[in-house]
Design goal:
about 230 residues, mainly alpha, two-stranded parallel sheet, 9 helices, about 40% helix
């Protein structure tokens, strides 16, 4: 019969149950049954299911508010499948790491800019959205750009093209733009912060939130999806 001291020593020796062999949850941007991930790695799904509808519908939204969109903005949307037009300072560490990858090393400056524009939907220059604030660091401006991109993608998912007008590149000739729908902001926050795959409602209402294809939107449930 073991003494209490032996039992205590044995208890110290035993390791906790192992989690080895237990599969970790699949990230939602890799889950084929989940359409609404705002992760940039989900770009092909976002483009094929939602962003493709942006160019035509944002034109309609602009017409409704009698806004003349600049030719450059429309050309971007048409040639980039409705993707958000993003900007980043080329001197940022994240950009420098990309520049040092095998894919990009050896490219000319023109080829590098073309690669980032069409593969990343990104201009290598200061953001015109945030350059007016001289106290913003380039890293902070890029972080803001990432959040704007996620919100743009979410608005494309739910078809709120009126709210997307404000996220276009600022244009000096555009004196008016409608405010972003507050219900869309609430829905976006719920999409990011509620538990994964929680069925969403439109803002604070009890009305189910549907995507442009008529499917109920489910929360992604993570704030780490830049």
């Amino acid at each position: 019969m073991m003494s209490s001291r032996q039992v205590s020593n044995n208890a110290k020796i035993r390791s906790p149950p192992s989690n080895e062999g237990v599969p970790s949850p699949v990230p939602l941007h890799r889950d084929p049954s989940y359409d609404w991930s705002l992760d940039f790695r989900n770009s092909p799904t976002l483009e094929s299911k939602f962003l493709h509808a942006v160019p035509e519908n944002i034109r309609s939204a602009a017409t409704k508010y009698q806004i003349d969109l600049p030719t450059e903005a429309l050309q971007w949307l048409d040639s980039h499948g409705g993707h958000y037009e993003m900007f980043a300072d080329p001197n940022l560490d994240q950009i420098k790491r990309w520049l040092n990858t095998k894919t990009i090393c050896g490219m000319s400056d023109a080829e590098i800019h073309s690669y980032f524009e069409f593969e990343k939907h990104l201009h290598l220059c200061d953001s015109p959205r945030f350059s007016c604030n001289s106290r913003l660091t380039p890293a902070t401006a890029l972080n803001y750009e990432k959040h704007c991109r996620m919100f743009w993608n979410f608005l494309a998912v739910i078809g709120d093209y009126d709210s997307m007008l404000l996220l276009l590149v600022p244009d000096a000739s555009r004196s008016y733009c409608p405010s972003v729908n507050h219900q869309s902001i609430i829905s976006y926050c719920n999409h990011r912060y509620l538990s994964a795959k929680t069925p969403l409602c439109n803002g604070l209402s009890n009305i189910p939130l549907l995507d442009i294809n008529g499917k109920r939107v489910l929360a992604e449930g993570t704030v780490n999806n830049c």
